[in-house]
Amino acid sequence: MRVLGVDPGLTRCGVGVVEGVAGRPLTMLGVGVVRTPADADIGMRLVGIEQGIEEWIDRFSPELVAVERVFSQHNVRTVMGTAQASAVAMLCASRRGIPVALHTPSEVKAAVTGSGRADKAQVGTMVTRLLRLSEPPRPADAADALALAICHIWRAPAQNRLQQAVATQNRLQEAAARHASAVKGRIR
């Protein structure tokens, strides 16, 4: 599975591509940051992020895009910018029919380090080890993007099994309801 991880941000939007399957060594195919000038108009910044993500999708042809789920912070302005950048990433993927997965920061930290409260340095260290890199990706946004991709690759099999189990359960409940309705109709 080839996953493009996106750590959304207006000034620095981390991007990283990881390939592999759960239980096997993973490979980093690319890592970087899409940057926009802080003094530029918000619309132009979003266009810049779109163009950058489109280039990454063109270059690496990911099967899925994993984006950090935006969560409430104290600074509403920061949350808004992060949410806007996140929406651009989801739009770019969806426009091409590429599935999108959202993961919370604590899910990503727990998947990569074993602790949902790990700091950026711990995430960077584990990403470096897991991908067998010579040094941690810089800036931290780039390492976070790789961590998102790793998280999804590792969690996807369990999530898929859970979704299949829920779908099967729903089909069984619908069949049981149809059967009960048919039996009830015959009794009358």
Quick summary:
By secondary structure, the chain is α/β, with parallel strands linked by helices.
Describe the structure.
With 188 residues, the protein is an alpha/beta fold. 57% of the residues lie in helices and 17% in strands. The chain has five helices and five strands, in the order E-E-E-H-E-H-E-H-H-H. It has helices spanning 42-60, 76-95, 105-113, 120-130, 140-187, and strands at 2-7, 12-19, 27-35, 64-68, 100-103. A five-stranded mixed sheet has the order 3-2-1-4-5. A hairpin with a 4-residue loop joins strand 1 (2-7) and strand 2 (12-19). Helix 1 (42-60) crosses helix 2. The protein is globular, with a radius of gyration of 20 Å. The termini are far apart.
N to C succession of SSEs: EEEHEHEHHH
In which order are the strands of the major sheet placed? 3-2-1-4-5
The protein's oligomeric status is single chain
Which structural class do the helices and strands define? alpha/beta
Helix residue percentage: 55-70%
Rg of Cα set: 20 Å
**Unreliable parts:** none
Tally the helices: 5
Task: Summarize the biggest pleated sheet.
Answer: 5 strands, mixed
- Residues in β-strands, percent: 15-25%
Shape: globular
Count of strand segments = 5
Taking all residues together, what is the mean pLDDT?
A: 91
- The end-to-end distance, rounded to whole angstroms, is 55 Å
What's the structural blueprint in terms of helices and strands?
Elements: E1 2-7, E2 12-19, E3 27-35, H1 42-60, E4 64-68, H2 76-95, E5 100-103, H3 105-113, H4 120-130, H5 140-187
Parallel strand pairs: 1-4, 4-5
Antiparallel strand pairs: 1-2, 2-3
Helix pairs in contact: 1-2, 3-5, 4-5
